[in-house]
């Protein structure tokens, strides 16, 4: 039995450990997306201010975050802020990283609101802030929901990077089990299947949302 | 650009007495890049008059409405509403654009209905109508709703009160848009080709609503339309535009039966298929 490449007993044995890790993975994805979707909106709005003193440094920062690897950012921040738990570093760095992408989704969502909506708001003499809150953002955010869903799946799949900063997410649970039992194949296969079990139905949901909003 | 007026100081604040025109254009210039759409346009509209602007597309009619609604910025000249310089003020020795805050004071007197309706799709029919009466005019919700219901009745849309706007046909959306503009109780109503995007069989419904408004209110109306029969019925005066200039100005009877200018004759022949 131990000579074979696949051992069903091992595969069932690792499952509860992985499910615990999955719960951490999901928590981190939810918290990370919360940061990404709020911060992303603020970045998108700040980029619309006419002042170059705001937009130029922000553009640099956004490009910097996008053009450097997530793994490097995670480890760098983890080593820099030694007193912050890896779990927190994990979802904050993921959130900030994805905020730079979400800001693009918001920008597109805002630009997709027809010009006539702004004009109607002016014709009704609405104040700028009220126009944003009551007319533009509700429509823009609706436009961004599919993008938000896609980035959530993408972030979910990148949580294994948190292995590098010792967060007990699902991939680390699988690795630890493999290290103790040498049953890496079973553990990592189950990890892959569990990722698929969450992300595939989610992607179907996102696709349905895209069709409904189109 | 020549200084459009010297009497700015004497025309400080609101003056709605009968002899002050509701709308006055003084040497208005509008350029889009190198394209001069309006070149020193002068005209005025007395209180309560209904004016129809006709002319070929690109003649500047819609630009006039958009300037009045501050959807476009002036390139030169002045627009006055009830004698108030609307978008600019005399400071030192020149005209400067007024801040948005001051514009909003005068803008309350102007309402506009668009060709594409432009209802807010994230609100219900009622939500569209009560939005600005509550948040701009400061009405209570109960009062705004009561007013909205009265207006919905007027445009024949009472049953659709709680519908989403995307559940309505084009003609229904336009009637809601008219109610929404009226809910702000404007002194001046701008109608920009409001039936052009509608199927022919429902144009009449919208025109009926507008006809009733023309008959039952004293709102100053400026309309750009291709519905010549309607223009003839409701307007006091028709202005024929070509290349950003008024080429002819007359009462509707004269304009449509006995135009003098060749350009008007050509245009009317083309649109009326005569």
UniProtKB/TrEMBL annotation, chain A:
Residues spanning the membrane: 24-47, 68-94, 187-206
Positions of the ABC transmembrane type-1 domain: 22-206
UniProt superkingdom: Bacteria
Signal peptide range: none
Cited SUPFAM superfamilies: MetI-like (SSF161098)
Gene3D superfamilies, alphabetized: MetI-like (1.10.3720.10)
GO biological process: amino acid transport
Single GO MF annotation: transmembrane transporter activity
UniProtKB keywords: Amino-acid transport, Cell membrane, Membrane, Transmembrane, Transmembrane helix, Transport
Membrane topology designation: Multi-pass membrane protein
GO cellular component, one term: ATP-binding cassette (ABC) transporter complex
Coiled-coil features, chain-numbered ranges: none
Compartments (UniProt record): Cell membrane
NCBIfam families in the cross-refs: ectoine_ehuD, HEQRo_perm_3TM
Family listed: Belongs to the binding-protein-dependent transport system permease family.
The protein's name in its UniProt record: Ectoine/hydroxyectoine ABC transporter permease subunit EhuD
């Amino acid at each position: 039995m131990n000579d074979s490449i696949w051992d069903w007993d091992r595969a069932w044995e690792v499952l509860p450990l992985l499910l615990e890790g999955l719960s951490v993975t999901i928590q981190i994805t939810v918290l990370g997306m919360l940061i990404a979707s709020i911060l992303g909106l603020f970045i998108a709005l700040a980029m619309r201010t006419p002042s170059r003193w705001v937009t130029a440094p922000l553009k640099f920062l956004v490009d910097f975050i996008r053009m450097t690897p997530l793994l490097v950012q995670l480890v760098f921040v983890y080593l820099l802020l030694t007193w912050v738990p890896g779990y927190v570093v994990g979802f904050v760095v993921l959130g900030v990283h994805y905020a730079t992408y979400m800001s693009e989704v918001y920008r597109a969502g805002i630009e997709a609101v027809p010009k006539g909506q702004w004009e109607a708001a002016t014709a009704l003499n609405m104040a700028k802030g009220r126009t944003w809150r009551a007319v533009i953002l509700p429509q823009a955010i609706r436009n961004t929901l599919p993008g938000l869903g896609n980035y959530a799946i993408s972030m979910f799949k990148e949580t294994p990077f948190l292995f590098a900063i010792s967060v007990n997410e699902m991939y680390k649970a699988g690795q630890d089990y493999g290290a103790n039992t040498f049953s890496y194949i079973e553990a990592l296969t189950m990890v892959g299947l569990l990722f698929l079990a969450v992300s595939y139905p989610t992607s179907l949901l996102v696709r349905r949302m895209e069709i409904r909003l189109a | 650009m020549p200084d459009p007026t010297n009497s700015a100081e004497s025309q400080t604040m609101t003056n709605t007495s009968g002899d002050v025109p509701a709308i006055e254009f003084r040497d208005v210039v509008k350029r889009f890049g190198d394209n001069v759409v309006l070149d020193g346009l002068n005209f005025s509209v007395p209180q309560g008059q209904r004016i129809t602007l006709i002319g070929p597309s690109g003649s500047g009619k819609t630009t006039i409405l958009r300037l009045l609604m501050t959807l476009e910025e002036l390139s030169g000249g002045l627009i006055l509403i009830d004698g108030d310089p609307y978008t600019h003020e005399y400071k030192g020795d020149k005209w400067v654009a007024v801040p948005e805050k001051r514009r909003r004071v005068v803008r309350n007197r102007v309402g506009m209905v668009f060709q594409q309706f432009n209802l807010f799709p994230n609100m219900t029919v009622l939500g569209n109508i009560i939005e600005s009466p509550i948040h701009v005019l400061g009405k209570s919700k109960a009062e705004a709703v009561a007013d909205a219901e009265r207006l919905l009745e007027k445009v024949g849309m009472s049953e659709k009160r709680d519908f989403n706007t995307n559940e309505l046909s084009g003609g229904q959306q336009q009637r809601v848009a008219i109610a929404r503009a009226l809910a702000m109780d404007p002194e001046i109503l701008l109608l920009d080709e409001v039936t052009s995007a509608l199927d022919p069989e429902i144009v009449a419904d919208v025109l009926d609503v507008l006809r009733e408004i023309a008959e039952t209110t004293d709102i100053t109306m400026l309309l750009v339309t291709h519905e010549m029969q309607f223009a003839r019925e409701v307007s006091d005066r028709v202005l024929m535009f070509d290349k950003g200039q008024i080429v002819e100005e007359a009462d509707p009877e004269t304009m449509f039966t006995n135009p003098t200018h060749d350009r008007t004759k050509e245009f009317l022949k083309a649109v009326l298929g005569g």
